[in-house]
Write a structure and sequence with these properties.
It comes from Amycolatopsis keratiniphila. With 246 residues, the chain is α+β, with helices and mostly antiparallel strands. It has 3 helices and 15 strands. It has 2 domains: 30 residues; 212 residues, Alpha carbonic anhydrase (Carbonic Anhydrase II, Roll), CATH 3.10.200.10. Strands 2, 3, 4, 5, 6, 7, 9, 10, 11, 12, 13, 14 and 15 form a 13-stranded mixed β-sheet that branches. The longest helix has 21 residues. It is globular and about 45 Å long. About 7% of the residues have low confidence. The structure holds zinc ion. Zinc ion binds next to strand 7. The site of zinc ion has 4 residues, from strand 7.
Length: 246
């Protein structure tokens, strides 16, 4: 092999090596973590994507404090930033269907401030509805909560469950009233926002719902330092707006 031909061969190899180093391996994608800060430039519009059919019914709820520091001596008074208030729904009372696949609603929970941001702006709270398919795939609906008129969400957060104490029972709750009327979604592929930060989560962000200022103050009073993960790099991911008026 002549020197010139050798160079022609070695340079692409070196470039491949650089790409391997920069991206982990040539076959792995860059991290696709959640939440994200949404810039308008990352959004595209696609009304042709399958609609998200939401079938939420009536359910008794158990509002429970989710602990992450059960082994700590002062765990009952310390607020770990991955802890939250979570409403457990009765199995079979709510589900969504996307492209023929059914995802059961398991629980919904709250973060302060909002985890997703738009142009760097946060909302006081964000609500996450966690759904799982029979194959184990996760689909989460995120709804920002803003200060304003009372809504059914106020009833869920009227009495917060203590970290080490009884859960709060709410009888016969109409789950559909928790969501905004406009069912348009901003969709992207991300991850869980708490450990183990598993990727492959389908995120569906909706427009805001309102809650009273006193509900916001009560939740922020419990999580004084917040319980939201910082925004993660988009790494080239796009978010897609799918209009839907049900
Ligand atoms: Zn969450």
């Amino acid at each position: 092999m002549t020197r010139r031909r050798l160079a022609a061969f070695v340079v692409p190899l070196a470039l491949a090596g650089f790409l391997l180093t920069a991206g982990g391996t040539a076959h792995s994608r860059p991290p696709a973590q959640s939440p994200v800060d949404i810039s308008p430039g990352a959004i595209r519009f696609d009304p042709t994507l399958p609609r998200l059919d939401i079938s939420y019914g009536q359910s008794d709820l158990d509002l429970e404090y989710i602990r992450k520091d059960a082994s700590d001596a002062d765990g009952c008074s310390t607020r770990n930033h991955e802890e939250t208030e979570e409403a457990i729904v009765r199995p079979g009372t709510g589900h969504v269907t996307l492209a023929g696949v059914r995802y059961e609603l398991e629980q919904f929970h709250f973060h302060t401030p909002s985890e997703h941001r738009f142009r760097g702006r946060t909302d006081p709270l964000e609500m996450h509805f966690v759904h799982r398919s029979a194959a184990g795939k996760l689909l989460v609906i995120g709804v920002p909560l803003r200060s304003g008129a009372e809504s059914p969400v106020d009833r869920v957060l009227a009495t917060l469950a203590p970290e080490c104490g009884e859960t709060v029972a709410l009888a016969d709750f109409d789950l559909a009233t928790l969501l905004p009327r406009d069912r348009s979604t901003l969709r992207y592929e991300g991850s869980l926002t708490t450990a183990p930060f598993t990727e492959g989560v389908q995120w569906f962000l909706m427009s805001e719902q309102t809650v009273s200022p006193s509900t916001i103050a009560r939740f922020q009073g419990l999580f004084g330092a917040g319980n939201a993960r910082a925004p993660q790099p988009l790494n080239g991911r796009r978010l897609t707006v799918v209009p839907q008026f049900s």
